[in-house]
Amino acid sequence: MALGHINFNNNGDDGSGDIADINVIPLVDVLLVLLIIFMVAAPISIGGINIELPVSKARGTISDEDRVVLTVNRDGEFWMDKTRIPAPALNEKLKAIYQFREKKEIFIRADRGVIYSAVIDAMSAAKVAGVTKISMLTQPPGKSG
Predict the structure, then answer these.
(1) With b meaning 16 or more CB within 10 Å and e meaning fewer, what string describes 108-137?
(2) What's the structural domain count of the chain?
(3) HEC string of the chain?
(4) Which of 125, 126, 110 is nearest to 55 (CA)?
(5) Side-by-side strand order, sheet with 69-72
(6) CB 78 within 8 Å of CB 122
(7) Reported pTM
(8) Residue range of the domain that includes 76
(9) Which are the contacts of 124, defined by CB distance < 8 A and separation ≥ 6?
(10) Residue 32 lies in a domain
(11) Is the dihedral of CA 113, 114, 115, 119 positive or negative?
(12) N or C: which end of the chain has fewer CB atoms below 10 A?
């Protein structure tokens, strides 16, 4: 006695056609991998200029990714996003950045051995550009940098 195939579909389709539903699981997998890649790459993106941050026991606040980071290296040179900014052009560069920006805050990464006046110059240029909140980036105790 042979068993046959019984079709319970009313439309006469035997079920071998294409599936009309979209499978979102591979899409979610790809998006999660991209998210992880960006989470790993974001802290690396501001580490382009090699400086030694001062150590601070105070806990910092977490901010959004749309932050402006001004780096002052050991030689007193100013950098933004791996681009060197000459000292005379710093005022104009910061004014251009903050002219239409709603959030007027800046993060300054200064090398531990930088001349104090270079940091003051950076802070002064930020104030002239209209910055209302200046934060200094440091590293927690026990981390090598």
Answers:
(1) bbbbeebeeebbebbbebbeebebeeeebb
(2) 1
(3) CCCCCCCCCCCCCCCCCCCCCCCCHHHHHHHHHHHHHHHHHHHHHCCCCCCCCCECCCCCCCCCCCCCEEEECCCCCEEECCEEECHHHHHHHHHHHHCCCCCCEEEEEECCCCCHHHHHHHHHHHHHCCCCEEEECCECCCCCC
(4) 110
(5) 83-85, 78-80, 69-72, 105-110, 133-136
(6) yes
(7) 0.56
(8) 50-136
(9) none
(10) no
(11) negative
(12) N
Whole-number Å distance between alpha carbons of 98 and 88: 17
Decide if 102 is inside a domain. Answer: yes
- AA letter at 48: G
- Amino acid type, 79: W
Domain assignment of residue 120, yes or no = yes
Q: 104 in a domain, yes or no?
A: yes
Residue 54's identity, in one-letter code, is: P
For 16-34, how does the pLDDT look when each residue is reduced to its tens digit (9 = 90+)? Answer: 666 677 788 888 899 999 9
The pair of three-digit structure tokens given for residue 136, joined into one six-digit string: 């200094």
Whose tokens are 């005379």? That residue is 88
Q: How far apart are CA 11 and CA 26, in angstroms?
A: 31
Q: How do residues 76-104 score in pLDDT, each as one tens digit?
A: 899 988 889 999 999 999 999 888 888 88
